[in-house]
Structure formats: structure tokens, C-alpha cells
Amino acid sequence: MKTKIKKGLLDLLTILFVVLFPHYVPLPFYSYAIICWVTVWWVLHRQNKSLRDLGLIKNGVTVKVLLAGTVSALIWVAFMRWAYLPVVRYFFIVPEYTEYNFIQDHIFTFVLITVAAWIIGGFYEEIIFRGYIQTTIENWLGVRNSFWFSGLITSVIFGLYHWQQGFLGVMAAALGGLFWTCLLKRFGRNLWYPIFSHAIFDTITLTLIYLGLFNA
């Protein structure tokens, strides 16, 4: 019993750390991810687990994963541009999104940020959120449909993780979290599917920003 409590407390503290540390200890150019990544790896190691337990299947990158990742990313871009944004613009005054405008007319910066998006947005965030956090919460719940309950909770946390983008950014990120949770379920909890979908979505978004078409 004590071991279970200690494990639960360690998981809770780890979740709080990876969610809050990047915001309250701002390190240059996404270097916070190294510290958070090592922390999660250490916790998994202590619990005799590996990334496979989070859904990172060995040799899981296939042509099917690439195709599904690309198609799902295009679907999500279309949804955000032609469904989500028109609805929120109807009810709210939506300021132009300018967080990444610094990449415009700077091809090297664009490439650098895109690579970072694959490493951080795709690989790191999906392992941390759809992998570690969602799996941990699901194990805590241990009830019927705990996958969906944990997915909903994780998506809310994922949205709040993007609080620096404002309320509408939080909403968009939370919806994205639900979308990638559905993708994870659809493809047998193979985490490579949401990883590639997330990374390709970010790549398309950054490309639109670079070309000055994001707010068009």
C-alpha cells in the first residue's frame, strides 16, 4: 500500500513538474524539454517501465503511420481554419496570431523552428502528454472508459499548458489534444500516429506563417 502511494505521489509530482517547469523556469530555445525528458525517463526507470509502456512501439514508424499522420494533420488544419476559427470569430474578437511571425522572410529561422517543432511539438509533447500523463491518469482511474476520461483530463491539461497563447489558444490546444487522443485510440495506442500527426500539423502551420498566409 505504501509503495502504491509513493508511486502515485511521484507520478503526481512529475506531472506537475513537466507542466509547470517550462513556464516558471524559462530556459532558452526549448532546453527545458531536456530536463523534463530526463525526469520522466528517470521516473519510468524507477518503476521498471520504458517508453514502450507509453505506446512508443519499437519499429512502429511505417508507411501507414506516415500516411495517417499526414492525412490526419491536413484534416486538423482544415478543421481549425474553416470550422474552429470561423466559429470563435463569430463570438469573439480574435487578435491575429503573431507568436511565430519572426520566422517570416528568414528561411534559416523557419527551418530551425520547424525542426524544433518536430522534436518538441511532435515527439516530446506527445510522449509527455498522450504517453506519460494520459497513461498515468488512466491507471489512477482504473474504471470503465478510463481511456476516454484520462484523455479528456489530459487534453484539458494540454490546453492549459498553452496558456501563454490566451484563452482561444488554450481551447485550440485542448481540442487538438482530444483529436490526437482519438487518433491514439483508433490505431491501437501506437503513439507514433499522434506524434507524426502533431508534428506535420505544426509544420503546415509554421509554413503558412512563413508564407504570410496563416491569418489570411
UniProtKB/TrEMBL annotation:
CAAX prenyl protease 2/Lysostaphin resistance protein A-like domain span: 109-203
Record key words, sorted: Hydrolase, Membrane, Metalloprotease, Protease, Transmembrane, Transmembrane helix
InterPro entries: Rce1/LyrA-like_dom (IPR003675)
Gene Ontology molecular-function annotations: metallopeptidase activity
TM ranges: 29-44, 65-87, 107-129, 141-161, 167-184, 191-213
Pfam families: Rce1-like
Name recorded for this polypeptide: CPBP family intramembrane metalloprotease
Organism annotation: Galbibacter pacificus
Taxonomic lineage from the root: Bacteria, Pseudomonadati, Bacteroidota, Flavobacteriia, Flavobacteriales
